[in-house]
Amino acid sequence: MKTPHVLVLMALVVFPAEALPQEDKAVTNPQTQAAPQAFVGCYDLRLGRWWPWGFGEDSPYVTPPSRIRLLPLRGEEGFEQNGFLLRAISPRKGAPSGRGRPSYWKAKSNNQIELIWTNGFTGITLELEEKGKELRGWAHPHFDVVPVIPRVARATAQRISCEASQ
To answer: Which CATH architecture has domain 35-160?
Structure first.
C-alpha cells in the first residue's frame, strides 16, 4: 500500500464523517406536520387503462375508490400513520366501490401529492401533480410479489364539493 492511501485511511479513522462540518439540516417530524390545506377536500378519481395490460380478477386490489375525501387529520393506526387520512365517499350509482382502508395521503411538494391504499400485501399509489384545476399523474400498483413487468395507468383527480358528495 502506498503512503498517500495510508494517510487517507488514517484520516477517515481519526476524523469520521460525522465529525466533519456538515450543512445544518433542520429535521422535522412528519407526525407533527400540518396537512397542506390546498389539497384537503373531496375529489372524483378517474383511472385510465393499465398499461401494458390489465389485472383481470385482481383488479379490485388496484382500483381506488371513484370518489375520495382528503382529511387534514393524521392517521393513528397501522399504515395510516404514514400520512393524513384518505377516505372513500359513497360511489355514484353504478360505479365500482374500489379499495377501502387502510389509506392515506401525503404531500410531496406544494403541487405534488401521493394517495396510497395498502394492506401491506397489495395496493395502489397515485402520484399526482396540480395541472390547472385538476391533479394528474400516474397510478402504480404494488403486490407482495415482484412484478415481471411493471404496469402503470394515467390518473386524474377532479375536485368536487364535499357537501354534494354526501
So the answer is: Beta Barrel (2.40)
The ranges assigned to domains in the chain are 35-160
Neighbours of 107 (CB within 10 A): 17
Burial class (CB in 10 A: 0-12, 13-18, 19+), 50: middle
Distance CA 88, CA 39 (A): 15
pLDDT of residue 55: 87
Report long-range pairs for 71-75 (Cβ below 8 Å, ≥24 apart).
Answer: 71/35, 71/40, 72/34, 72/35, 72/37, 72/40, 73/35, 74/31, 74/35, 75/102, 75/104
Please write the tens of the pLDDT for every residue from 63-119. Answer: 999 999 999 999 888 888 889 999 999 866 655 555 566 899 999 999 999 999 998
Q: Is the peptide bond before 52 cis (omega within 30 degrees of 0)?
A: yes
